[in-house]
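hey all, quick one before standup. I had two proteins in the batch that finished overnight and I want to keep them in one place so we stop losing track of which output belongs to which input. First protein below, input sequence then structure tokens straight from the run.
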Amino acid sequence: MKKIDKNNIPKEIINDSIYLYGAGYTAKICIKALESESVKIESLIDDDLMKHGTKELSYDVLSYNEFAEICKSKKSINVVLTSIYGKTIYDKLMVFSNVTIWEMYDWYMDVLDQQELVVEKHCEGERLVRYKRNTDALKKYLSDDLSKSVYDAVYQYYITNDINEIVKVCTTEESYFIKEVKEYFQGRKFTLVDAGAYTGELLRAIIESGLWVSKWYCFEAEKNNYEKLLNNIEKSVLPEGMKCLCENYGLWSEQKELPVMGQGASSKVVEDAELCTGEVCKMETIDTYFQNIKVDMIKMDIEGAEMRALGGAVNTIKRDMPLLAISIYHCVEDYYRIMQFIMKIQGRGYKYYIRQHAMIYGETILYAIPRIVENEYNNK
């Protein structure tokens, strides 16, 4: 894989057209950056079924199979990985001998830093000491060496600011549906709570997992995202037997209303009204909403509000012991305090795994998987 630097665009890129793999948020950043350097872009490629046949910033979005057909008729093709999940895509592209793969992670990471996304990437001094002390103490509760190596890689990244430390431990497994999750739910139907549903991207992963989701509860706080979510679900063909319910609620530790800051992928609810965009969102608790509904899995990626939302799910976790897949990268302390919090509620009932799902800092997920299915748990 070759690198594109913003101050040194390779001649192979300038003198030829390129395809971008990934049509999400980071693709928009890459498009604008490349266009500013007069790089010709042919089309985008994406694995999201809902994006196929659409356009992103005037560029067609192709499926992988459509791109494969194009490869058959070209001598050489340049493909830039825009997706932060580039490791999986890289493996898929390696089957084409005429494809040259490029990355521009450093370039768009500079842009992301300037946009102040809800990811806290810097840690030093006493804070770094606390990170090391707490994560080292938690390692004995993690279920495999890969999980422990993620903690170590993040620590090294804080010290060196070298993204290769993160890349080394990046998995190619699908976010939220790693092998252990699929094994746990194999052959069983289950309800899935999607906290931070955004515009419905999880649907593709559900379909590809082959698992039997009977009901998918989608919670999205930001109004524009919610409208897109409804539209996407309406246009999509859901797996047989699945029902989907979408709510324009945020999830919190109590029922209240909170202002929303920002739009799109990085929108979040805040407690400081001065930071908001004028939009106000109703906040719900998992315990209240699911008071009479069994919950089998909770997926959570809500831009730093995970601890708050878990605080409103204590009774549900005690009652149902759902499988948990929680983002822990938005705040340095979340890397350890989220696991510590879950352990206080239902510690011995879970096996814990940590996976790094992207080749950049972020997309780190803690998985708490029940040790024994449903009523067989015996508190050993």
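OK second protein, same deal, sequence then tokens:
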Amino acid sequence: MIFGLGSEPGSTNLLTRALAAVDERVESVPDPVQIHYHLPDPRLDHLRVHRDYAQWLEELTQRFPHECRGIRGFYDECWAVFRALNALELLSLEEPRYLLRVFLQNPLACFTLLRYLGVNVGDVARRWIRDEALLRFIDIDCYVWSVAAADRTPMINGGMVFSDRHYGGINYPVGGVGTLAERLANALRDQERFPGCWVEYGARAVRVNVDGQRRATGVTLADGRQIRARAVISNATRWDTFGLAGADESVPRALVDAAEVPPTERLWRQWYTESPSFLSLHLGVRADALDAGHAHLRDCHHIVLEEWAHMESATDAAGTIFVSIPTVLDASVAPPGRHIFHVFTPSWMSEWRGLGHSEYRARKQQLADRLIERLERRVFPGLRRGIEVFEVGTPRTHRRFLGRKDGTYGPIAARRLHGLLTMPFNRTGLPGLYCVGDSTFPGQGLNAVAFSGFAAAHRVAVDLGLEPRLPLGLDAWLSEWISRRRLEWLGRGMQSTEDGTR
């Protein structure tokens, strides 16, 4: 599900903006239905989240007529957040001159976002809605993109997703999602457009180099080469960047030596934990084998869950099933008469540790069979007999090819937090080192990660003197408060609250 690839006015189509920044674009196909839900409650079964907002409200209120006012009130608040975001130029929130400028340009939008910055989706939903079944739906409607229930999903992110799916919409890049990365990389390698830029593949960074002044000065690659730089930007997770156990232990996989890990990273580890990885099935399926379930092939994305108690399960292929069938929108990515099914469900690395080669293969087959059986029983009868291509990925696959600790999808709140207030920005406590990706503000999702990239580029450009800023001393003092001292202050406040409740 690709957000941020629309063409509507505003600042939130961040993938479109990223491509435009390098004079590129991709052809895309709009998805008329974001998700087709197959859920335990009869009122929620076969619920389709339409791109058309009026159609979506009508379908939901028909199922919950007694919650008509609450449904509209909840989504009105989501739209308030989205409109505020869409009205602002989205750059670095730790750059004081930019903050001052956008506040003067649109104070109402800024106040709206400040109001919701420390709020979670569940807080707003329970203000408006009483029906527990509908609240459970809002939980899973958050879970499918944040891998957390509504009470641990920031309202800023929720407002963005629950509104943009009807504004910019979900758009599938023709040829597959890989075309996005290919277009960006090819553009950056074009020396006529971007002289001096280059992209290296298979060049794994193993260490961030730090000088005697405790400043990041470049990276060391796995082949021993060193690349010097005035700024180092890590898109690895914070676990892989700073290590797993904080500054008290040496962690070989960490990019930053334990002695150089900033104290604020310890706070981050207290507040956030890793979400599970996934068991992923990539299937090539004959379309004629799916005749009995053909009605469901009008929609690209499906969510399948038989019991609410298993919504967040990540063992034994018992949890929520995610299904994507890109050939529904773009038949060119498969041979004629064939469909591609990407089927996945959360899975912890602990399910796969210590397995020998034959045990590993057997476990993959066992859990893949379980997923296919669940899908045949609930949504796609005949799926198994139509399979011609069958590939299975596990958390070990994700860890190996994505370079992420335990193959994790990303960080989730370890406990109930104050919305996005505790999420770090791009600067780190190590000068010269910046982080981007889903373990920086505003968190998980392609559009959110694209925002973190725009924000990092802006802050780095300011720090290198390529963009204007406030007088140096004032900029440094304010940036320090926004970036580091904010987290320390929140940490002390949360610790005091915990001490007071003991």
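Flagging for whoever picks this up: The CA atoms of residues 4 and 210 lie 36 Å apart. The chain has three domains: 44-168, 200-272+416-501, 276-406.
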